[in-house]
Structure formats: C-alpha cells, structure tokens
Amino acid sequence: MEACVMTRWILLLLTLSSILLVILTSSPSWMTVGIAGALFGLVATVLAFAQARIGASARGEELNDFEIQQLQQAMRQRKSGDPPAS
To answer: Where are the transmembrane segments (predicted)?
Structure first.
C-alpha cells in the first residue's frame, strides 16, 4: 500500500513540474514535452487518487469463516434439492 501512496504523490509532482515547464520554456520542443507530460500526468494523477478513494471504502474480497460455512451449507442444500432456508 505504501508504494501506491508514493506513486500518487510522484505523479502529482511530475504533473506540476510539467505544467511549470510549459509556463517557463520558450522552446517549442520542450513545450510539446511539457504539454504531453501534463496531459498524461493529469489523467494518471486523477485516476490514482480516485483509485485510492475507492479502495479506501471498498469491502475486502476475503470471506470469513462464517461466510464460508454459509456458502457451503447453501451449496449442499442446492445439491440435495431442498429449498433454501431464509
């Protein structure tokens, strides 16, 4: 998880430095590099922060012991043809 946190901030830093490069340069080639970097960095940074926000509130994908038992019981009932209990 720590690598993801650092990646978000590195992307933000690279995006801001690309924008700064576009503002301060007078060379067309460096301006092209800066604009491309800023566009790519902006999209990547927004997606990285959105992923972190979604991941923070997402439920874990692991099943606990109770859920595994309930699932096994439901599968046994389904195989035997009994109606599921509510």
So the answer is: 7-24, 30-50
CA distances for 26 relative to 21, 39, 73, angstroms: 9, 19, 70
Q: Evaluate whether residue 22 is within a structural domain.
A: yes
- Report the domain count for the chain: 1
Residue whose structure tokens are 């209990």: 85
Residue 25 pLDDT = 94
Mean pLDDT value of segment 13-31:
96
Model pTM score: 0.63
Has residue 86 been placed in a domain? no
Domain extent at residue 73: 2-80
Residue 38 lies in a domain: yes
